[in-house]
Each structure stands twice: as structure tokens, then as C-alpha cells.
Fold this protein.
Amino acid sequence: MEHQTALNLKKMACKVRMGVIEGVHAAKAGHPGGSLSAADLFTYLYFKELNIDPANPKDPDRDRFVLSKGHTAPGLYAALALRGFFPVEDLKTLRQIGSYLQGHPNMNTVPGVDMSTGSLGQGVSAACGMALAAKHMGKTCRVYTLLGDGEIQEGEVWEALMFAHHHKLDNLCVIVDNNGLQIDGRVADVMSPYPIPEKLKAFGFEVAEIDGHDFGQLEAAFARARETKGVPFGIVMHTTKGKGVSYMENQVGWHGKAPNDAEYEQAMGELRAQLAGLEAE
Amino acid sequence: MADVKKIATRESYGNALKELGAAHEDVIVFDADLSNATKTGTFKKAYPDRHFNCGIAEGNMMAVAAGAASMGLVPFASSFAMFAAGRAFEQVRNSIGYPHLNVKIGATHGGISVGEDGASHQCCEDFALMRSIPGMVVMSPADDVEARAMVKAAYEHEGPVYMRFGRAAVPVIHDEGSFTFEIGRGEVLRDGTDVAVIANGLLVAEALEAANTLAGEGISVRVINMATVKPLDEALVLKAAKECGKIVTAEEHNIIGGLGEAVCAAIAESGIPCKVKRVGVNDEFGHSGPAAALLKQFGLSAEHIVGVVKQL
């Protein structure tokens, strides 16, 4: 990846992270940890990978993205807003009465959201249905879905993966955000899903294992996904939960907690400094 | 009724799907390894490229159907009522109901007339489960003619629909030529003034038989076929409450949460004085046995309806 492209994506990812903090702080609730670990992915998808048009969010031939780990909606919303689907200032209405930005994604209220999710394990199934339908209808669009590493403890995920391989959904890309933490602690301690790449391979997936904060690796993995024929593609991203905010990084307590005013100031200060650093490059 | 033609409504479902498939390219069918029993196999034979097996994974099937619906197709997702409404309840609630996606659930083998398989497969809770989902249409046909018309109406309806079909063959009571079906509209099959029996599914034929018997004893019974449990035809229920003052509901479902409770709620909130008795499965599990014997044993019969009407 060209240096300038990577730099632009890094800057945008920084803004996505700010959007996450703005939303969750204003809501006094929400899930910053997993939104931040996936912020680079959201950025890459909405600013590089997906064939989408904010002016025509219901275009029948657009690529689809299903946020199977729906609780990280603040990250998705921030990317959608920055991409132009709705005003960035609306991020502060997250989880408020009257806001279209529900705590978990609602496809009928949020422009750019392709599937209502939140109950873990179901989004990946819906993505399979979209990919199957796209093939059946002769559409060339692609379907992407993001799962949490805790989420894959849900049995339905493996029903879906079996389905994806059986029906040869090579237009489907399943991404796992392996940040290593879930509500009750380390995923390895709560209920180990490891080894994840081997499990995906055993279910017939072509798999890439990458650093989910490296745009070059994301680009290479998605390029491989597009070239893969006959079988679905899986990307296991190693990430840091809470990435970008020092006191949230690798802290299980920040899975589903909002920063108070002082914590908000610190987080925004850190992110502003990161952005300034990138802009100085 | 030995001379009356009998057809299981699951057969009707399969046949209607095939007809629908011929008329509409956007109809696709999902099944979970039960195509021979749910009769979606009939559709599969005609349109193999539009029938997708999901294996024994009903939860995944429902959310897959939701995804396919979001792309503009009209999926019919099928399994036994126990697994479609029971096992996959949360997928139906969150991935189909909440986004109000255009998925049609064809659930066969509802009620205790499943027979020999026993309680694990005799779903008497599906109306209750599906009624509680906002925006869900819940229906159960009385016979073959109504079942086929219902499948077509479900296709024309925009939004999620739950249809319950039966395993056992039931008498055909409607005339194909003159019958019309409308979602949310009950049907007065026989007029009467003393008592109204509001039934659906295979209890409709039983109610008609009961009305016949009671007529011989000087009791005038109105028989209403209430195929749509939700949205309930409240106007027809309240008219019966006002004009008859006594109502018996009859369904192959737990008396908790089904048609009977829906009717009771409508009457109670209307303030119309009306006595009600519910015929159904009395909050217990079924067991193995031939369907006909089970229906008799659990009081899902004309004979039992006659007794309940007389007690009212």
C-alpha cells in the first residue's frame, strides 16, 4: 500500500475512534473496547473496500456489510457518518430516546446499515443469506461480516460457516476480530475458541491471519478474498481491544462502559495528538 | 365424514409453494432436512435451483432467510412448528421480526396430531410465541383449500408471516370455486344465535360437527373459522359476543397464549358481557399415540366441544 493511502486511512481511523468516544461518552453507555479494536477495519471497509454510495444507501447492487458483533455499533456509526451517510454530529445522539442511532444497528433507521443485529451469532447467518441471494440473483456484489472472538462461541456461527462452505459462497468474507477479551474476561479463560484459523479452515474456508491494525495487511487479505473462488474467505484479525486510547487498551473493563468527563477529555486528547502526529507526517 | 375428501395441510403447503414458484421467480424455499415431511420437496422437485437445504440448523436457517429477504427475494423457511417457532424463536424475533423482513415461515407438524413422535415434537406453544412478536402475522388453516389460499396471501403480504400446517389429513370443508381468503378476516361457516364456537386448524371441522349435533338438540351454534390468530378479527369476535353472549374457542394449542386467549382479551377489553370457555390442550405435554386417538383423549373433538357448549 502506498504511504499516502495508508496515512490517509490512519487519519480517518483516528477520526472514527474519536466518533466512538464522542458517542459512547454522550450516551453514558455503549461498547468502546470492541469498537476501537475494529476501528481500522471499519475505516478500511468504508473508505477502501466496499462498493457503496452514501447518496444511494439502498442501491440493490451495493456490497453489504453485516456487523454481526452488533454491540460495536459506535464504531460502525462513526465510519458511516464520516463516509457521508449521515451527519457526524448525530453520533452524539447515540442511544438517546428519539435518536435513529440505536444501541445496536437497526437497518430500518440508520442509513447504510444493511442488517439489524445485536444478538450474537445471527449476523453471520444473515450475511450467508445475502451472499446466497446475491449469487442466486446473478449479482456481483460482495458480502462482508464482522464477528467478535467471543461471539464465535455461539453455535449458530458454526451452522452459518458450514452453510457458507456447503453453498460455495465465495462472495462472502467472514472477519473475526480477535482482540482476546469478552465481558467476563479473556476469551481463552471464559470459553476458548482457539485455534480460530484452524477451525475456519476445517469448515472449508480459505483463511488469512493478519494484524488488524495494519492497513497493508488488510488490503492484501481483502485482495486475496476477492480472488478466492469456490469457497468462502475468512480473515482472523489480531487486534488490541480499546486500541488508540491508552487506558482502555487490553482492559476487559472497557468492553461495555462509557468514559466519564475526565476520561473523555483524556481519550480525546490522546486521539487528537495521534491525529496531529499523522497530519505532521 | 368417511365420504369427505381429506388432505393434510402440509401437502397443501407444498402444492401451493409449487404453484407460487411457477408464478413468481422471487420465491425461494429453505428447509432444514425435513423436505419430505414439510412437503417443500414438492417445490424442490419443480424448482431445484430455488430450494436450499440448511441442514439441521433451524436458527441459522431463519437468519439466512432474513438475509435473503433483505436482498429482495421472498423466502419461505420451513421446519416443524416445534423447531421453527420454538428452537429458532430468537432468530425469528431478532432477525426477522425486529427488522420486519419479508420472510414467510411455513411450520408443519403443529399440535398434538403429530401423533406417534410424542411430546418432543408436538408443538402447542407456537401461536403464543409467534403472537408475541410485533408485526408478525400468525395463521393456521382449516383445510386444503384455505391452506393454499393462505400461502398465496402470505406471499402478497409485505412482512413476516407465520403459518402453521398439520401433519394429519383433515376434511376439506371449503368450496374451491367460491372461497376467498383475506389475512386478518374470520369466516362465519355456519350461523347461529345461542353460542359461537371460534376455532381454527383441524378444530374447525370438529366445531362444524359439534354444531350439527347441537342443532339436533335445539341449540343454535355459530361456527367461526378464525384462521388468522394475529391480527385477530376483533369485529367478528365482538359481534359474536354481542349476538350470542356465549363463546367457546377451540384450537390445537395450549389454552395459554393462543386463539382462546386472544379472543378472551378482545372480549374482556370490550366490556361486552359474554361467557367464554377455551377448548385446547390444558397446559400439559402430549404423548405418543395415533393422532385420532390423541385428539380424542385431549378433548380436541366434536364430542368434547358439544359437552363444553352445553355446560356454558
Summary: The two ends of chain A are 16 Å apart (CA to CA). Chain A has a mean pLDDT of 98. Chain A is about 45% helix and 10% strand.
